[in-house]
């Protein structure tokens, strides 16, 4: 039970997309996102169960997500939401190297 992410490729394998599905009803909903990683960060950004939002609110939130930024607590940099996962991975890599 919950929201899951399905990632797939287009007919010619050149496009990739990811959508949210409700695992209870099997219904896909919301925007087609770039990939599963972006979808994961978007879900974290929402902070609520995506299923409680209307389609309009979900699309508005996605637009906000694509254009928005957040402040990294580690380095105080302003990071675009869409780059957030990569930014966190860079810090993780630095931490591992420092050990
Ligand atoms: Zn940082």
Shape: globular
Give the N-to-C terminal Cα separation: 39 Å
Radius of gyration from CA coordinates:
15 Å
Count of separate DSSP helical elements: 3
Bound ions, cofactors and other small molecules, one mention each: zinc ion
**Largest sheet geometry:** 3 strands, antiparallel
Percent of residues in helices comes to: 25-40%
Average predicted local confidence, pLDDT: 93
Strand order of the largest sheet: 1-2-3
- How much of the sequence lies in strands comes to 25-35%
Low-confidence stretches: none
Number of DSSP strands?
A: 5
Please trace the helix and strand order, writing H or E for each element: EEEHHEEH
Task: Please indicate the count of domains.
Answer: 2
Pairing-aware structural class of the strands and helices? alpha+beta
Short description:
The protein is of the alpha+beta class and 99 residues long. It is 39% helix and 26% strand. The protein contains 3 helices and 5 strands.
Task: Characterize the structure shown.
This protein is 39% helix and 26% strand. By secondary structure, the chain is an alpha+beta fold. It has two domains: 1-67, no CATH class; 68-99. The strands form two sheets. The protein has a three-stranded antiparallel β-sheet. A two-stranded antiparallel sheet has the order 4-5. The chain is globular, with a radius of gyration of 15 Å. Zinc ion (ZN) binds next to helix 3.
């Amino acid at each position: 039970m919950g929201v899951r992410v399905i990632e797939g490729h287009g007919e010619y394998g050149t496009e990739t997309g990811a959508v949210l599905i409700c695992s209870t009803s099997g219904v896909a909903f919301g925007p087609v996102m770039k990939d599963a990683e972006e979808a994961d960060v978007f879900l974290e950004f929402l902070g609520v169960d995506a299923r409680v939002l209307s389609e309009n609110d979900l699309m508005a939130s996605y637009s906000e997500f694509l254009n928005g930024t957040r402040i990294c607590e580690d380095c105080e940099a302003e990071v675009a939401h869409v780059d957030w996962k990569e930014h966190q991975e860079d810090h993780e890599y630095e931490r591992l190297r420092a050990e």
